[in-house]
Design goal:
mainly beta, 6-stranded antiparallel sheet, 4-stranded antiparallel sheet
């Protein structure tokens, strides 16, 4: 199994079965960046009016918005997902990797 941004399909997040070559679009959202851990994918939705960090199951189910805005550097641990606002490395946010979304500021970089 591999996940990729399908440039021929408006950069939709897509699943590829490497043994059969079959593909499945997981979300029609235009995606800027993503990260996979276990059975969940976190991705940045590129939308003119409603950009957001979102999550979806690796099977394409359970899509939900995590935090409105533009984010980058999506890092996932066994417990949390950490992400930064685009073009601002002084703030970091986190939310539990699974379960209810609860976004909180993690750290402020004072350099």
């Amino acid at each position: 199994t591999a996940y990729f941004l399908d440039a021929d399909n408006n950069y939709a997040l897509t699943l590829a079965d490497l043994s059969t070559g079959e593909t499945k679009v997981l979300t029609d959202d235009r995606v800027d960046t993503f990260n996979v851990y276990g059975s969940v994918i976190y991705y940045q939705r590129n939308h003119k009016n409603h950009p957001a960090l979102c999550r979806i199951g690796t099977d394409g189910n359970g899509q939900e918005e995590v935090c409105e805005g533009n984010f980058t550097d999506i890092n996932i641990t066994s417990s949390y997902v950490y992400f930064y606002p685009y073009d601002n490395d002084k703030m970091c946010y986190r939310t539990p990797r699974t379960g209810p979304v609860h976004v909180s500021q993690f750290i402020t970089n004072t350099k």
